[in-house]
Amino acid sequence: MGVAYLPILFAVLIAVVFSLAFVGLSKYFGPHRPTASKEAVYECGVAPVGAANQRFSVKFYLTAVLFILFDLEAVFLYPWAVVFRDYVYSSVSGAGIYIFTEMFFFLGVLFLGWYYVLKRGALDWD
Amino acid sequence: MFEALLFYTFSALAVFAGAMVITRRNAASSAIALVASFFCLASMYAMLGAHFVAVIQILVYAGAIMVLFIFVIMVLNLREDNDPGWNLSPRAVLGAGVGGLVGLTVFVGASAARSMTFMPTDKLDPNFGTIEQIGYTLFSGRYLLPFEVVSALLTVAVVGAVVLAKKEL
Amino acid sequence: MSETMLTVILALVKCVFSLAFVMQIVPLLIWAERKGAAYIQDRPGPNRAHILGVRAGGLIHTLPDVFKLITKEDVVPSHVFRPLWALAPIISMSVALVTFSVVPWGDQILIPAEIAEKYLGTTGPLAVNLQVADIDGGLLYVLAMTSLGVYGIMLAGWSSNNKFSLIGGLRSAAQMVSYELAMGMGVVAMFMTYGTTRLDTIMQIQSESILNWGVLLSPPVGLVAFILFWVSAFAECNRNPFDLPEGEAELVAGYHTEYSSLRFALFFMAEYANMVVASSVTATLFFGGYNIPFVNGAMLREHIDLVLIAIGVGGGVFFLFAASIAFGRRKDPFYAAMEAFKGPRPNKLAPVGGLNGLLYRALHDDTLRQHEWKIFTAIWAGAAAAHFGLIGLGAMNIASGMPLLTEIIVFVTQLNAFVVKVLFGCWMFIWVRWTLPRFRYDQLMDLGWKYMLPIGLVNILLAAVWLLIDANTMRLYAAIP
User: Which of B115, B165, C180, C374 has the fewest other C-beta atoms within 10 Å?
Assistant: First the structure.
């Protein structure tokens, strides 16, 4: 059953080995002379002020949450899109309209959600 | 034989990655270990002929939910964890209790499964688990109401996320 | 050879082929980027490095770059979080390479029964699908892998422990997830009309007629889907105008600021590999992939001798043209200058005798460049002659008597059609990068969330209405399997 996926496993292995070999190349051929200034945080030659671990705006988080929710919606769309043709061109009358309405309401409700997000200004970056 | 080998490799990897999730002190490392675990699960779904579930496992769990986790780790940027180490607080006892209960359930389930009959995957209908099959099952009318309710659920979640985040903006 | 062994070996060969395909285009693109940028900015671009006087239009510049990166120090700064920092470039590169495995690059090679039985131990003919993995997920697999690409960048940004890297990583992650949505919405409309997510089946549908090519399907749905997909592909590859994660004006190099040597090269190559993959998927989904307009695989096989003649005439004329240009370069004033200059630039450190001296002269003696036009004229003239030879082969009906040769010619022809489409897509990436300015971050998020997402939804609706009307009137798309 999983035979079709076997080449992907090979591809993953080959790609990872290739990348590792690449990193190994420079380890082998390149010099290794660490100095304090090489190992310092790179900030264009200026001594860094403060650590990098500052907190960031929650807007980034909101983007990620909204992405998950709309991505889940897309997951429901994929199987629907794939069978849509079969329903539309089937000999059963009304099958096309049926599956269309089914998704129309689904998307309609989600569209309301999107509109709410838009109106609340959650997508505005200022 | 070959399939069994792959199965045991992936399950061992999944368990190993799972153990990494709870033993790493660094949150980002834990998250990446969880992604690796999801990957192994996806491979097992693929071997079982659950094509759609395998892809969705990567698309949604590894590609969306774990991205959110890492996002949170990046945004909060808690680098030094102030983990007090092992001690016997009521929370630890509760956690151990819940963990034990889950373990027991898995054990009971696994022993019950021993008496079941299994179907080899090569005897499955070739269309089993394909996206088409999922589509027919989901949209034929049997799951009409749950499907429509899902949209309401997602919308509620959208509204909730915005309300929670907007308060702090 | 047993059946299983044969499957495994075929899978491995195809894997290596497809990875090599991507990795070969990468240096070519690096060259095209430099030369294209130079062309757009009206300057000569790279034209100095040479081997024995052959500069190949600056293509040789990529070689010293590779050697330079290999021999650079791999600096591991002490402030990075080592395990994830080391993992990030590997994830970036691997994801880019692995995504290509579902893209078909030819219809199939049918190895005739007698050859397959004799050498490969099969019973009957062997059909080799020219696609690494034909899985049910198909395009969903591409989307899933794309969504993993963000890890490389996020982890690099986070584990570098550098402000620039962190901001770059955050920006990029938010950008990539937003455009992933638009990309998903774009392809749903295509799934509806094709009725499948398998790229293999999608290619078969497109082989039937040019009207079945994705971009022309139920107009304007296919076109809109293409635009959504293509714009998202730019954002997913972090290419200008969406290259804020590494916007050098404000973020130095963004998420890969703390990387050096080949670790940096992995990020750099991953960007180009992503471009190749994005172009291939777009070509496959919207532009008929390996199909030549109006000519499908069956027609190629039927008129194989005509195909040979056509390739011979077309290629011959093309290479003759190239040879005449190369010949025309003999009067380049540069050569006269070189002639007057005589001998390499005096350099006291340059090695003189022995192997080092020869090597130095091969790479540094600029007077050798005056022979470049001869070499190129010879190469192009040779290629032209070989192509004109193909006309003879075609006229003698040699290929139609040999089934395996026919298959190979069809494979090469279709692969070339595919490569042309992919390279054109890659050129679009370069073209846009040196033409458009960068977005502001809020504009970028607005485009993704406020415009492309609803346009995608409306497009899905439009595709549905199109199919519903079509089912009751013309039934144009009823015949698609």
Answer: B115
Q: Does A116 touch chain B (CB under 8 A)?
A: yes
Q: Could you tell me if C258 and C131 lie in one domain?
A: yes
Q: Count interface pairs A-C at CB distance under 8 A.
A: 222
Is the CB of B17 inside 8 Å of chain C's CB atoms?
no
- Could you say which of C341, C361, C391 is where a domain stops? C391
Write out chain B residues lying below 8 Å of C150, CB-based: 63, 67
Instruction: Tell me the whole-structure pTM to 2 decimals.
Output: 0.89
Assembly ipTM:
0.89
Closest CA to C375 of C62, C51, C64: C51
Clarify whether residues C130 and C177 are in a common domain: yes
The rounded distance, in Å, linking the Cα atoms of C3 and C8 is 9
Helix, strand, or coil (residue C299): helix
Section C104-133 average pLDDT: 80
Contacts for A69 with CB less than 8 Å, ≥ 6 apart = A113, B154, B157, B158, B161
Nearest to B63 among C148, C155, C196 (CB): C148
pLDDT of residue C346: 58
Residue C296 lies in a domain: no
Say whether residue B152 is in contact with chain A using an 8 A CB cutoff: yes
- B75 and chain A in contact, CB less than 8 A: yes
Assess whether C383 and C417 both reside in one domain.
Answer: no
pLDDT of residue B82: 57
Write out pLDDT tens, residues C343-363: 555 566 666 677 877 887 777
Which of the two residues, C474 and C245, has the higher pLDDT score?
C474
CB contact under 8 A, B65 and A68: yes
Chain A 11-50, residues with CB within 8 Å of chain B CB atoms: none
On chain C, the residues whose CB falls within 8 A of the CB of A70 are 181, 453
- State whether C144 and B64 contact (CB < 8 Å): no
Query: What is the least distance, in Å, from the CA of B158 to any CA of chain A?
Result: 6
Contact C15 A52 (CB under 8 A): no
Question: Measured between beta carbons, which residues in chain B are less than 8 angstroms from residue A85?
Answer: none
Our CA angle for C447, B64, B98, nearest 5°, is 150
What is the per-residue pLDDT for B169?
46
Residues C214, C110 share a domain: yes
Residue C339 inside a domain? The answer is yes
In a domain, A54, yes or no: yes
Distances (CA, A) of A16 to A11, B47, B129, C87: 8, 22, 29, 10
Q: Which domain CATH number covers A83?
A: 1.20.58
Q: Is B52 on the interface with C (CB under 8 A)?
A: yes
Separation of alpha carbons C74 and C263, rounded Å: 8
Mean pLDDT of C141-160: 87
Query: How many structural domains comprise chain C?
Result: 2
In a domain, C436, yes or no: yes
Shortest Cα–Cα distance, C310 to chain A (Å): 36
Q: Are C192 and A84 in contact (CB under 8 A)?
A: yes
C32-68 confidence digits (pLDDT tens): 998 989 989 988 888 778 887 777 778 888 888 888 8
C428-467 residue pLDDT tens: 999 998 888 888 878 888 888 888 988 999 999 999 998 8
Beta-carbon neighbour count of residue C64 at 10 Å?
Answer: 13
Mean per-residue pLDDT over chain C, rounded: 84
Q: Do A82 and B132 touch (CB under 8 A)?
A: yes
User: Using a CB-CB distance cutoff of 8 angstroms, which residues of chain C are in contact with residue B49?
Assistant: none
The verdict on residue C134 lying in a domain is yes
Confirm if A80 and B144 have CB atoms less than 8 A apart: no
Is residue C449 within 8 A of residue C182, CB to CB? The reply is: no
Q: Is residue A126 part of a domain?
A: no
Overall number of domains in chain A: 1
Say whether B63 and C147 touch across the interface (CB within 8 A): yes
- Phi/psi for C209 (5° steps) reads -160, 155
Residues C241 and C340 in one domain: no
Q: What are phi and psi of B35, to 5 degrees?
A: -60, -45
Are C151 and C263 contained in the same domain?
yes
Which residue range is the domain that position C458 belongs to?
72-291+405-472
